[in-house]
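Late entry, zinc ion complex.
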Amino acid sequence: MKWIYILPIGLVNPATLKYVAEEIPLKLNYRCKIMESIGEPSYAFEPKRGQYSSAKILREILNKAQAHPVSEDLIKILGIVDLDLCTPILTFVFGEAQLGGKAALISLRRLHQEYYGLPPNPPLLLKRAVKEALHELGHTFGLTHCLDPKCVMYFSNSVKNIDTKSDKFCDSCSILLSEKKPKVTE
Ligand SMILES: [Zn+2]
Ligand SMILES: [Zn+2]
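Prediction complete; structure with ligand written out below:
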């Protein structure tokens, strides 16, 4: 049995983790295990930006995967943070993943309505988190961005784009996904 491991990094609402862990298997056919949380990623803080380096956290997630005692049962690992992420060239990112690799990362920070000065909307936050989780995991299964604005692999640089797209892989992404996913017999 292969699992997608979910790694909370710093403080992350357990209800969000649970929801994401329950939704992913409906779209990717792998069940999820929530790992014990690791501490705040102070090593990734970029003082000039006031944000966290997405690449540094991704590396930490990969280290965690490699140190995993039973790594054979770990197909992918998805880190979840509630801190704002950046890259050297982008002002922010909702997430990052290794294309065709093991590790993915999403940030909840800009998925909260409160971030935009709006009243909290927990169901909307959960929907956005699932879409971003599936999107980044899609990259780890080798999928690149899709031009279909309804497909979960559509590139989002705003919550508006996230809300417009569905939580589903379009037909062509689904085909690619089934070709790229390793065959599991158990
Ligand atoms: Zn992407
Ligand atoms: Zn697609």
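The chain has a mean pLDDT of 93. Will revisit in the morning.
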